[in-house]
UniProtKB/TrEMBL annotation:
This is MarR family transcriptional regulator. InterPro entries: HTH_MarR-typ, MarR/SlyA-like, WH-like_DNA-bd_sf, WH_DNA-bd_sf. Residues 1-138 form the HTH marR-type domain. It comes from Streptomyces albospinus. Pfam families: MarR_2.
Length: 146
Protein backbone atom coordinates (compact mmCIF):
# COMPACT_ATOMS: atom_id res chain seq x y z
CA UNK A 1 0.00 0.00 0.00
CA UNK A 2 1.37 3.42 -0.81
CA UNK A 3 2.00 5.95 1.96
CA UNK A 4 -0.99 8.16 1.08
CA UNK A 5 -3.45 5.28 1.32
CA UNK A 6 -1.78 3.98 4.47
CA UNK A 7 -2.01 7.39 6.12
CA UNK A 8 -5.67 7.74 5.13
CA UNK A 9 -6.53 4.34 6.57
CA UNK A 10 -4.58 4.97 9.78
CA UNK A 11 -6.08 8.42 10.44
CA UNK A 12 -9.60 7.15 9.78
CA UNK A 13 -9.07 4.13 12.04
CA UNK A 14 -7.68 6.28 14.86
CA UNK A 15 -10.48 8.82 14.48
CA UNK A 16 -13.15 6.15 14.67
CA UNK A 17 -11.48 4.53 17.65
CA UNK A 18 -11.17 7.85 19.45
CA UNK A 19 -14.81 8.83 18.90
CA UNK A 20 -16.03 5.41 20.02
CA UNK A 21 -13.80 5.35 23.10
CA UNK A 22 -14.92 8.81 24.20
CA UNK A 23 -18.56 7.86 23.65
CA UNK A 24 -18.17 4.60 25.59
CA UNK A 25 -16.44 6.27 28.53
CA UNK A 26 -18.98 9.12 28.71
CA UNK A 27 -21.81 6.56 28.74
CA UNK A 28 -20.07 4.61 31.52
CA UNK A 29 -19.90 7.79 33.58
CA UNK A 30 -23.69 7.90 33.64
CA UNK A 31 -24.45 10.11 30.65
CA UNK A 32 -26.66 7.67 28.82
CA UNK A 33 -28.83 8.49 25.86
CA UNK A 34 -26.10 10.48 24.15
CA UNK A 35 -24.71 9.76 20.71
CA UNK A 36 -21.31 10.84 19.36
CA UNK A 37 -22.92 13.67 17.36
CA UNK A 38 -24.05 15.21 20.63
CA UNK A 39 -20.43 15.77 21.63
CA UNK A 40 -19.82 17.73 18.43
CA UNK A 41 -22.90 19.84 19.25
CA UNK A 42 -21.79 20.35 22.87
CA UNK A 43 -18.43 21.67 21.66
CA UNK A 44 -20.12 24.42 19.62
CA UNK A 45 -22.73 25.27 22.24
CA UNK A 46 -20.06 25.49 24.96
CA UNK A 47 -18.25 28.14 22.91
CA UNK A 48 -21.17 30.50 23.61
CA UNK A 49 -23.48 32.73 21.59
CA UNK A 50 -24.80 29.75 19.65
CA UNK A 51 -28.15 29.62 17.90
CA UNK A 52 -29.69 26.64 16.16
CA UNK A 53 -28.58 28.15 12.83
CA UNK A 54 -25.01 28.39 14.13
CA UNK A 55 -25.16 24.78 15.25
CA UNK A 56 -26.49 23.69 11.85
CA UNK A 57 -23.57 25.38 10.12
CA UNK A 58 -21.09 23.88 12.59
CA UNK A 59 -22.41 20.35 12.08
CA UNK A 60 -22.96 20.72 8.34
CA UNK A 61 -26.66 19.87 8.56
CA UNK A 62 -29.92 21.65 7.79
CA UNK A 63 -31.49 24.03 10.29
CA UNK A 64 -34.33 21.55 10.65
CA UNK A 65 -31.94 18.74 11.58
CA UNK A 66 -30.17 21.00 14.07
CA UNK A 67 -33.51 22.03 15.59
CA UNK A 68 -34.43 18.37 16.01
CA UNK A 69 -31.07 17.71 17.69
CA UNK A 70 -31.53 20.71 20.01
CA UNK A 71 -35.01 19.49 20.91
CA UNK A 72 -33.60 16.08 21.75
CA UNK A 73 -30.83 17.56 23.91
CA UNK A 74 -33.24 19.93 25.66
CA UNK A 75 -35.61 17.05 26.34
CA UNK A 76 -32.79 15.09 27.96
CA UNK A 77 -31.82 18.06 30.13
CA UNK A 78 -28.47 18.84 28.50
CA UNK A 79 -29.38 22.14 26.79
CA UNK A 80 -31.69 25.08 27.44
CA UNK A 81 -32.88 27.75 25.04
CA UNK A 82 -32.62 31.37 26.21
CA UNK A 83 -33.95 34.55 24.60
CA UNK A 84 -31.49 36.14 22.21
CA UNK A 85 -30.68 39.70 23.35
CA UNK A 86 -30.59 41.09 19.79
CA UNK A 87 -32.96 38.88 17.79
CA UNK A 88 -36.44 38.17 19.11
CA UNK A 89 -36.87 35.27 16.64
CA UNK A 90 -33.70 33.45 17.69
CA UNK A 91 -32.84 31.57 20.87
CA UNK A 92 -29.38 31.19 22.34
CA UNK A 93 -28.42 27.66 23.30
CA UNK A 94 -26.74 27.00 26.60
CA UNK A 95 -25.49 23.83 28.23
CA UNK A 96 -27.13 22.99 31.53
CA UNK A 97 -25.01 21.84 34.44
CA UNK A 98 -25.66 18.28 33.24
CA UNK A 99 -24.48 19.27 29.76
CA UNK A 100 -21.33 20.86 31.19
CA UNK A 101 -20.71 17.75 33.31
CA UNK A 102 -21.03 15.57 30.20
CA UNK A 103 -18.51 17.82 28.43
CA UNK A 104 -16.07 17.47 31.33
CA UNK A 105 -16.58 13.69 31.21
CA UNK A 106 -15.78 13.74 27.48
CA UNK A 107 -12.61 15.75 28.15
CA UNK A 108 -11.50 13.16 30.71
CA UNK A 109 -12.39 10.35 28.30
CA UNK A 110 -10.37 11.96 25.49
CA UNK A 111 -7.30 12.22 27.73
CA UNK A 112 -7.70 8.58 28.78
CA UNK A 113 -8.23 7.45 25.19
CA UNK A 114 -4.95 8.95 23.98
CA UNK A 115 -2.94 7.94 27.05
CA UNK A 116 -1.89 4.63 25.43
CA UNK A 117 -0.70 6.53 22.34
CA UNK A 118 1.34 8.84 24.56
CA UNK A 119 2.81 5.86 26.41
CA UNK A 120 3.65 4.03 23.18
CA UNK A 121 5.33 7.02 21.52
CA UNK A 122 6.85 8.68 24.59
CA UNK A 123 6.29 12.29 25.63
CA UNK A 124 8.64 13.90 23.10
CA UNK A 125 7.39 11.98 20.05
CA UNK A 126 3.77 12.40 21.12
CA UNK A 127 4.28 16.19 21.35
CA UNK A 128 5.90 16.14 17.90
CA UNK A 129 2.98 14.17 16.48
CA UNK A 130 0.48 16.64 17.93
CA UNK A 131 2.48 19.55 16.48
CA UNK A 132 2.73 17.85 13.07
CA UNK A 133 -0.99 17.15 12.95
CA UNK A 134 -1.78 20.72 14.05
CA UNK A 135 0.21 21.99 11.06
CA UNK A 136 -1.82 20.01 8.54
CA UNK A 137 -5.27 19.74 10.16
CA UNK A 138 -8.02 21.84 8.61
CA UNK A 139 -9.15 24.91 10.49
CA UNK A 140 -12.75 25.31 11.43
CA UNK A 141 -15.36 23.12 13.03
CA UNK A 142 -14.70 19.53 13.89
CA UNK A 143 -17.63 17.72 12.35
CA UNK A 144 -18.88 14.19 12.68
CA UNK A 145 -18.10 11.93 9.76
CA UNK A 146 -21.64 11.62 8.48
Amino acid sequence: MDDALALSALVLALSGQLVQEIHTQVSRQGFEGLRPVHGFAFARIAAGDTTTADLAEHLGVTKQAAAQLVGELAGKGYVVRRPHPHDARARLLELTETGRAATRAADRAARAAVAPWRAELGEARFAELVADLARIAPRGPIRPGW
